[in-house]
Design goal:
5-stranded mixed sheet; binds zinc ion; Serine Threonine Protein Phosphatase 5, Tetratricopeptide repeat; 17 helices; 327 residues; alpha+beta; 2 domains
């Protein structure tokens, strides 16, 4: 995982493993929507607030905070389907006055994001940071009618792709109940994507009648989701918080992964390497573990040995550009 900006700033994060998982889950639904998956860039935004956005430039941003709020793979896929629905319907984010004057800003942001993706993270990050684009995005919103449209477009695509729309409804319902009892409005996502009970009930009917409604997440996806959450916590949270969330009594793979990352971030390099090596003993062909090992050794000041680990990661996954850049 690599952050494109200092940790304090909102920034894009790149993680080949998380990106591969999200792309794999999303592709059938995007295709079913008539979008070309390879043309949609799904960006991970290092921001603990719950937010996501889509631009007409075919760029979708998911905040790490939103991903962490999803309880199942199907909920995360549901949010992605909804955002893709905005792209498919060519919706435009607007400010409170309902004008589309923010488009040039969003286009610049999109260019920055693309520059970051093209392997020039500094150029991209500078563009992204200079105008606090992501903060501004929180103030923009779609029209209520567009929310309904994105919901239905997302739900139909999920059904055609053989996926349940249950997570899409569940995710919104969770926050609808918070909105009633507390203050979910503080979540930027629900300022830009206003919720209403009418909207949720309009979505629930078609979703529940769909033939794939009863489909459940596979064991593999549940494991991948747990891994995504563990890596985000590990890299983005304070190490103490990660170690509290994943105590040593938890011997699952995600927990051991998260602890290794937390130790690495905490400067406990020997312990981190021990953790990664134990995972590698079980999964010697896992390129992402070799990537992490390379990262730990490199920052410890042993570039030659780091090179060997990164080389191994590239050999195992030659088509992954980020691993190659690390190497
Ligand atoms: Zn929306």
């Amino acid at each position: 995982m690599a952050a494109a900006l200092p940790a304090s700033a909102q920034s894009l994060i790149r993680d080949t493993e998380i990106e591969a998982i999200i792309d794999e889950w999303s592709a059938p639904t995007l295709t079913a929507m008539g979008l070309e998956p390879s043309e949609i860039e799904i960006l991970l935004v290092n921001d603990e607030s719950l937010n996501a956005f889509a631009t007409r430039g075919r760029i979708m941003g998911l905040n790490t905070g939103l991903i962490l709020q999803t309880k199942t793979p199907n909920q995360l896929l549901g949010v992605i389907a909804h955002e893709a629905g905005h792209i498919k319907n060519r919706h435009t984010l607007r400010d409170g006055a309902q004008n589309a004057g923010m488009q040039p800003m969003i286009m610049t942001m999109a260019l920055g994001a693309l520059a970051a993706l093209a392997g020039a993270p500094d150029a991209g990050a500078a563009l992204l940071a200079s105008s606090q684009y992501f903060g501004t995005l929180g103030a923009l919103r779609y029209m209520q009618s567009q929310e309904g449209e994105a919901d239905i477009t997302g739900a139909r695509a999920l059904e055609r792709a053989g996926e349940s729309g249950r997570g899409l409804v569940e995710f919104f319902e969770n926050f609808r109940s918070q909105e009633v009892f507390s203050d979910a409005r503080r979540f930027p996502y629900f300022r830009s994507h206003p919720l209403s009970s009418q909207r949720i009930s309009a979505l629930r009917g078609p979703v529940e009648r769909a033939s794939h409604y009863g489909n459940t997440d596979s064991e593999e996806r549940i494991a991948q989701h747990a891994l995504v959450l563990a890596k985000i916590h590990g890299f983005m949270d304070h190490p103490n918080n990660t170690l509290r969330l994943y105590p040593s009594s938890d011997t699952s793979l995600p927990a051991r992964y998260a602890r290794a990352i937390a130790w690495y971030k905490d400067g406990q390099t020997a312990k981190a390497l021990e953790g990664v090596d134990a995972l590698l003993a079980e999964q010697p062909e896992n390129p992402y573990l070799w990537e992490l090992k390379g990262q730990i050794i490199f920052e410890e000041g042993r570039p030659a040995e780091a090179l060997d680990a990164h080389k191994k990661a590239v050999e195992l996954m030659p088509e992954a550009p980020l691993l190659r850049i690390n190497y």
